[in-house]
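Lay summary. Proteins are chains of building blocks that fold into shapes, and those shapes determine what they do. In this project we predict the shape from the chain. Here is one chain we studied, written as its sequence of building blocks.
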Amino acid sequence: MVRPAPLVLGIDVPVWMYSISQKGGGTNHPIRLCVTDMVLIETLPVGCFMIQSTLMIRQHKHLHILGICGTAMAGIARLAQESGWWVTGSDAGVYPPMSDVLAAMNIKVRPFSVDNLDPRPDLVLVGNALSRGNVEVEAILDRGIAYTSGAQFVGDHVLGARLSCVVAGTHGKTTTSSLLAWALESAGRQPGFLIGGIPENFGMGARLGQGRPFVIEGDEYDTAFFDKRSKFLHYHPRLLILNNLEYDHADIFPDLEAIKRQFHHLIRTVPGSGLIVVNADDRHLADVLRRGCWTKQVRFARWGSDADADWYWQSVCEDGTRFRLFHRGRQVIEVDWSMLGEHHVANACAVAAAAFALGLSYQEIADALSTFAGVRRRMSLVGEAAGVRIYDDFAHHPTAIRGIVAAARAALGDQGRLWVVVEPRSNTMRTRVHEERLPACFPGADRVIFVRPASRGLAAEAMLDVASVCRKIGAHAKVAEDTETIIEEIVDRATPGDYVLVLSNGGFDDLHRRLLKALQGKSE
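And here is the predicted shape, written in a compact code that computers can read:
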């Protein structure tokens, strides 16, 4: 029997082996198929041979994502799918909600393994949590497989001719990005977006969109193990919002000056025909802009500020649920909304300035702000049981913690006690960088509970001394050794009308839902 020559369908992409058999029975022989076009083959004659099984042959290029369960990488996976890529992914752990998000996109996530690179992907995205030593990272380097970062992929393959609207700053990026995307959506602009959270108005953190604007949360964190520039430098903004600037990310930035340098690099990428919307009350941003700016600025500030601005914001209620916006010296917008905290009013002012520059009317902006449903894990109500309300927030910096605690206290008024539970989880919060600032972040809190940070390789002398922080806060603050202790204390001592505010940028051992379940058991 003579073995047939390989059957080639005409293009050079990774190959699969399939068996064919001689008509009337006989020996099976493998053939190599090189394919890209999506076709369904039921029987294909090859001389006296037939392919026996049904075969789906992929149409699109193969994108494999390392660390796909990160919020940003999962969002990029969605954008890639909508752009026509066939997406696969791998990660160390897969659990809700990201497992559900990826399953809904029909993306099966596997543990890290060199087997995930067979068939050979056309391109691999490497998440910034990945580093040398990972089995797949080592394999792509050894095999010469093309790879890039998530941020670079967005800049190269998603933005194209889109109008890139980037939101940057130490605080408020997720909320401000979500607000801007919603303002454009509610005005019929059908924006694309990539946001490091889940805007409740959309129910997803990313989509390609049909309109020209594309809203991106501009993270200053570094890009990948092979690219130490800030992610936002890949996004080519034509409209840039600069909310604020403080020291953060102590694991990659030695000081505030290093962060300022990255922000000035970002400003250098905005064209002269673009626009920068900047918080005029922030002295660090003013310093960065003094180093050189070649783009028109629109400035916003608090009403009554000494800063010279085009837009001003004024909170009418102490908790920030009603506010006014002023443009060119006159009030143009007044809004009642569900967001808590004056920091969100400042975010709303930034969005109004940006949206107006993009052509939205005052009324369209007001309608969008009043119907904004918030962002998951930003002062989100987890539930209520036994008369106790449990809220979840992502706050992981002293400024953010102080703002959300003050907002919760204002919302609660004199109706009950405010419990604040803090997990210092981020790379910066676990260190002593902000130790002196933390005690002043809890005005109005009746009970404060810290858990000890996980070391994750950090030397004991470099770790945040939570016992010292609690002593400085006062007798109403304490350290808990585990989440079981926290649940027991709150269930035992909380009374109807109390708020429990849980602050963490991680899962926190599912404390929120376990506490809710325990309180429900108490009320039965």
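What the prediction tells us: The first strand starts at residue 15 and ends at 22.
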